[in-house]
Amino acid sequence: MRSAREFAAETLHAWGVTCRHDEVLLCVSELATNALLHGVPPGRGYRLRMLRYEGTVRVEVHDSGGGRPRLGRGDRSAEGGRGLLLVAAVADRWGTVLRVPGKVVWCEFAVGASGAAGEGEAGRAGGPPDGL
C-alpha cells in the first residue's frame, strides 16, 4: 500500500491538488488493501488509476478477482470489514463496475477547478452511482 499512497501523493502534487489530500490517500489505501486481500488471485496484481476532470479527482482500483464488494456492518469487534465504510463516508461518490476478469472499485472527490485548499467542499452525493 505504501507504493500506492506514494503514487497518489505524487500525482496530486503534480496536479496541484492540495485540498482533500488526506481523504484521497486514505481511500487509496483502503481500496488497494481490499484489492490485495479480496480481489487478487495468486500471481496477479491490481492497478491503481487516478483521473482529474471538471474539478473532480477519481481513484480507480482494478483487480481480477471475482465478486462484488459490499459495505460491511462496521462490527467493532471485527479486525476488518470497515474499508468500504470509510470510503463511503469520506468520498463524495463511490461504486463498482464489473469487468472481465474482475472489477473496478472507484471513488470521487470534488476538489474545485484548481484543486487548491478550500475549493473542494462540495455536498455529498447520494448513493453509489451505476457505472462509470
Could you characterize the architecture of this molecule?
By secondary structure, the protein is of the alpha+beta class. 31% of the residues lie in helices and 22% in strands. The protein has helices spanning 2-15, 21-39, 83-90, and strands at 47-53, 56-63, 93-98, 103-110. Strands 1-2-4-3 form a four-stranded antiparallel beta sheet, with helices on one face. Helix 1 packs antiparallel against helix 2. The radius of gyration is 14 Å and the shape is globular. It starts with a helix and ends in a 22-residue tail after the last strand.
Number of E strands: 4
Q: How big is the Rg?
A: 14 Å
* Multimerization status: single chain
How is the biggest beta sheet arranged? 4 strands, antiparallel
In spatial order, strands of the major sheet run: 1-2-4-3
Number of helices: 3
